[in-house]
Design brief:
Length: about 425
C-alpha cells in the first residue's frame, strides 16, 4: 500500500498521505492541499471519495454488491427487506429476537396521523406521486421536529424506524389519491411488502388477496434497491444532513435527487422508452438514436457510473421478472420482448461494448412492476421505498462520528474584479 504520494506545485514538492480501503480502491487524503493553495477538480466526482463508510461496497468491474459484507444475491435469495433494513442500520444480521423487536418497532409506527393525511388533499388527482411523497416526507419534519435530537443515537434510530415504517403508507396514499380512492390503513398482521401492496390494491377491513409470489417479488425489489454506496441521492442526503438539518428534510432532499431520469427516475423512463419504441421491429432505430452523438436520446436502464461489467441487481431483477410473469401466466409480454431485443443488440454492438454499457437495475424493474400492476408513475416511489433504509443508514453513520458541513469549492472562471458602472454609462 502506498503510504504517501508526492506532487510538485510551482517547484515545491509536497507529500499527501494515503488511506487504505478495507475492500477496493485506496484514497489520497487531499485535505492538506488547500494549505498549499490548490484544490482538486472533479466535476461529477468520478475520482472522489466524499466520505468513508462501512455500509455498502461495490466492485464495478467484478459486478459485486455487498450490504455490510453480504452479497446482494444471497440477501435477495435468503433474507427479507426488514431484515436487510436492520442489517444496514446496525451492521450485523439480527438474531431472531432482535429481528422480532425491530419488526415490532416498525409495525407500531406504520400509521399516519389522520390530520397529516390531509396533506394529500392539497394535490390534484393527476399530481406525480414523487411530488406527493417528497412533500409528505418533508412534512413529517413538522410532525416530529420538536422531539428530534440528532445528537442522540436512540433519537436517530427512532427517526430511522419511523421513516422505514411510514414510507409504504405514504407511497400507498399517493397511489390511492392518484386514483381517487380512499386510503387503506396499514395491517400489522401482514408482512412489509404484502402490507404495502394491500394498502395499494386492497380495501380497509377486507382480508389481503395479495399472492405470495407477488409480495415476495416486491420484497425482493425493495432489497435490491435498499442501498448503493454514495450514489447521487445518498450523497444528497449526506450533504443535507451535514448541515444538522431535520432528518426528514434531508431525506426529502434525497427523494428529489432520486427523481431524475438519470438516477432513480430511470425505471419510469425505461417503460416510457419501451412504449415509445412500441415494436421489436423499431429497436434497431432506437439503438442507432442512442449511439448518435447529435441525438440526446439515451437507452434508459443502460449504463452505470460504477458497474462496468454487469449490475448484479439487474440479473436478480431479471430472474424475478420471469417468476412474476410465470405466476401471472404472462407468456409473451411485448415490452419484455422489446427489452430482450434491446439487450441482445446492445450487448453485441461495439458502441455499448466499448463504453461498458450494460442493463442496470432499472432495466427490468419497470417491466416487473408493470406486471404486478404498479402504474408507471409510481415506479420511482417504489425505488424511494426500497432506498429508505440506505439513506437513513448513511445519515445515521455520518452523525455517529465527527463530521464537517459539506462545502465543496470551485474552479472560478468568471470576471476579474471590476468597478460598478451606473446605468446611464452602460
Ligand atoms: C441508478 O449511482 C448509482 O449507484 C445509481 C443507482 C443506485 O442504485 O443508486 O445504481 C441507480 O441511477 C442507475 C442508473 C439509471 N440511469 C439510467 O439508466 C439512465 C441512462 N444511463 C445514463 O444516463 C448513464 O449511463 C448514467 C447516468 C447512468 C451514468 O453516466 P456517467 O457515468 O456519467 O457516464 P457518461 O454519461 O459519461 O457516459 C459515458 C459514455 C458517453 O459517451 P461518450 O461521450 O464517451 O462518447 O457512454 C455514453 C455517453 O454518451 N452513454 C450512453 C448511455 N449511458 C452512457 N449512451 C447511450 N445510452 C446510455 N444509456
Amino acid at each position: 500500500m502506498i503510504q504517501k504520494v508526492q506532487i510538485t506545485i510551482d517547484g515545491k514538492t509536497i507529500e499527501l498521505p494515503t488511506m487504505e480501503a478495507k475492500e477496493g480502491t485506496n484514497v489520497i487524503d487531499v485535505r492538506g492541499l488547500i494549505a498549499e493553495g490548490m484544490f482538486t477538480y472533479d466535476p461529477g466526482f468520478l475520482s472522489t471519495a466524499s466520505c468513508d463508510s462501512a455500509i455498502t461496497y461495490i466492485d464495478g468491474d467484478a459486478g459485486v454488491l455487498l450490504y455490510r459484507g453480504y452479497e446482494i444475491e444471497q440477501l435477495a435469495d435468503n433474507s427479507n427487506h426488514l431484515e436487510v433494513c436492520s442489517l444496514l442500520l446496525n451492521g450485523e444480521l439480527p438474531s431472531e429476537t432482535e429481528l422480532q423487536t425491530f419488526v415490532a418497532s416498525i409495525k407500531e409506527k406504520q400509521t399516519i396521523d389522520s390530520k397529516f393525511q390531509q396533506i394529500f388533499n392539497g394535490f390534484t388527482q393527476g399530481a406525480h406521486p414523487m411530488a406527493m411523497v417528497g412533500s409528505a416526507i418533508s412534512g413529517l419534519a413538522a410532525l416530529f421536529h420538536e422531539e428530534i435530537d440528532i445528537t442522540n443515537a436512540d433519537s436517530r434510530m427512532t427517526t430511522a424506524h419511523r421513516l422505514i415504517a411510514m414510507i409504504p403508507t405514504l407511497a400507498a396514499m399517493a397511489y390511492k389519491h392518484g386514483r381517487g380512492e380512499s386510503f387503506v390503513e396499514p395491517d400489522a398482521s401482514l408482512g412489509y411488502a404484502e402490507n404495502f401492496l394491500n394498502m395499494c390494491f386492497g380495501e380497509t377491513g377486507k382480508p389481503s388477496t395479495i399472492s405470495r409470489t407477488i409480495s415476495s417479488a416486491m420484497d425482493k425489489i425493495f432489497i435490491l434497491h435498499a442501498d448503493h454506496e454514495q450514489n447521487a441521492s445518498t450523497s444528497t442526503v449526506r450533504m443535507s444532513g451535514s448541515t444538522d438539518c431535520n432528518p426528514y428534510a434531508a431525506i426529502s432532499a434525497g427523494v428529489s435527487a432520486l427523481w431524475g431520469p438519470a438516477h432513480g427516475g430511470a425505471n419510469e423512463a425505461v417503460l416510457d422508452m419501451l412504449n415509445e419504441i412500441g415494436d421489436v421491429s423499431r429497436v434497431e432505430e432506437y439503438v442507432n438514436k442512442a449511439k448518435d452523438k447529435n441525438d440526446p436520446f439515451k437507452l434508459m436502464g443502460f449504463g452505470h457510473r460504477v458497474y462496468k461489467n454487469f449490475d448484479p441487481r439487474a440479473k436478480v431483477m431479471e430472474a424475478s421478472c420471469h417468476a412474476v410473469f410465470e405466476e401471472l401466466g404472462v407468456k409473451d409480454d411485448p415490452l419484455l420482448e422489446i427489452a430482450k431485443r434491446l439487450e441482445t443488440i446492445a450487448r453485441e454492438d461495439d458502441y455499448f461494448i466499448e463504453r461498458k454499457l450494460y442493463p442496470n437495475i432499472d432495466f427490468y424493474s419497470g417491466i416487473t412492476l408493470k406486471a404486478i400492476g404498479i402504474p408507471t408513475e409510481l415506479f420511482t416511489v417504489i425505488f424511494t421505498l426500497g432506498r429508505m433504509p440506505g439513506w437513513i443508514s448513511h445519515w445515521n453513520e455520518m452523525l455517529s462520528a465527527p463530521y464537517k458541513i459539506a462545502r465543496p469549492r470551485q474552479l472560478y472562471l468568471g470576471e476579474h474584479q471590476r468597478e460598478y458602472v451606473g446605468i446611464n454609462n452602460r
